[in-house]
From TrEMBL, chain A:
Database matches in Pfam families: TrmO_N
Annotated InterPro entries: TrmO-like_N (IPR023370), YaeB-like (IPR040372), YaeB-like_sf (IPR036413), YaeB_N_sf (IPR036414)
Keyword S-adenosyl-L-methionine among record annotations: yes
Keywords: S-adenosyl-L-methionine
Protein name, UniProt field: S-adenosyl-L-methionine-binding protein
PANTHER family: TRNA (ADENINE(37)-N6)-METHYLTRANSFERASE (PTHR12818)
Record bears the keyword Lyase: no
Family to which the UniProt record says this protein belongs: Belongs to the tRNA methyltransferase O family.
Residues annotated as domain TsaA-like: 12-143
Length: 167, 165
């Protein structure tokens, strides 16, 4: 059941660094809703500053980043908020075949190449890969099913990373 | 900076689009839209079918241009905006994200609603879409709301849906 692969490697480079009060995985909120009101900054490398024009008009942005501290992959994982194991693709945790993270955060303001953001659930020093504007038409879905999270989503405001996913 | 991170293709995305694809996913799009995961990752799909929507993350591999920090979205000619204020596929790291509906999962295949990518696009990741985390109900439309056209008409352009007015 192996699939036909493209030739050549996929390599991405950091375009900036995310700064937050969370210096280690332990204690970091696991999603932006749990990270409400936590402020951070995104430092975009100067060669990309011009690409930030017009970003300031958006109330929210999507950050795509490299989970640089994720540990060895396991396809079935016990998530933070449940006692049963789930497939890694049914979870948002950092230990994945490709450790790519996505967070939608509130944008407060931009000064030159520094974006001031709120509702940050990202570790300090995380390498940034991309910024996309959050557009309600594309990014809001009326998902009435939230899967296995349904019975534990109320735990979010207090669930913190206990360090289980780092090396 | 010369640091870079290596990622791997974990599957591919099958769509009817060979030469032209919509700019954004169209939920009611007709055709066969499937994510084919490399068989060795099948176990990782456990419980994913309990979610209605998923993020599909992929490598945009059919680009012929280098990124420019200033872009003119094809659906609004003449408007110039910063690259990161746009969803243009031509970016320093060509990572695409689409939110689609899960229809069913059979073995290593996820059948979905319409995807806005070319056939055989390399898959990087799949994540559940969680309304409580991902829906920002007070989000605005940034520079898009400043354009002189009605929102509904603009959205047809943004999504690349053909229309006659």
């Amino acid at each position: 059941m192996s699939i036909r692969k493209r030739s050549g490697e996929i390599r991405y480079k950091p375009i900036g660094i995310i700064h937050s009060p969370f210096k280690e995985a332990k204690g970091t909120p696991i999603q932006p809703r749990a990270a409400k009101d936590i402020n951070g900054t995104v430092e975009v490398f100067p060669e990309y500053t011009e690409g930030l024009k017009d970003v300031e008009g958006f109330s929210h942005i999507i950050l795509i980043y490299h989970f640089h501290l994720s540990k060895k992959l396991s396809l079935k994982v016990k998530p933070y908020m449940d006692s049963e194991r789930h497939g890694v693709f049914a979870m948002r945790g950092p230990s994945r075949p490709n450790p790519i993270g996505i967070s939608a955060v509130r944008l407060l303001r931009i000064e030159e190449n520094i974006l001031h953001i709120q509702d940050v659930d990202i570790l300090d020093g995380t390498p940034l890969l991309d910024i996309k504007p959050y557009v309600p038409e594309f990014d809001i879905r009326e998902a009435s099913k939230i899967g296995w999270l349904e019975k534990s989503v109320h735990k979010l405001p207090t669930s913190k990373d206990d360090g289980r996913f780092i090396k | 900076m010369s640091i870079n991170f290596k990622f791997k293709q974990i599957g591919l995305i099958r769509t009817p689009y060979i030469d032209k694809a919509p700019y954004q996913p169209i939920d009611g799009d007709k055709g066969d839209f499937r994510i084919v995961l490399d068989g060795k990752y099948t176990e990782g799909l456990l419980a994913l079918d309990s979610f209605r929507y998923i993020y599909v993350i992929y490598h945009i591999d059919r680009l012929r241009r280098n990124p420019s920090m200033s872009v003119s979205p094809s659906w609004t000619p003449g408007t110039k905006v910063g690259l990161f204020a746009s969803r243009s596929p031509v970016r320093p790291n060509p990572i695409g994200i689409s939110i689609v509906r899960v229809k069913k999962i059979v073995n290593n295949e996820i059948f979905t609603s319409g995807l806005d990518v070319f056939d055989n696009t390399p898959l990087l990741d799949v994540k559940p879409y969680v309304k409580d985390l991902d829906s920002k109900n007070d989000a605005n439309y940034g520079w898009i709301s400043g354009l002189e056209s009605d929102q509904e008409h603009l959205l047809l352009h943004i999504k690349g849906i053909p229309h006659e007015y």
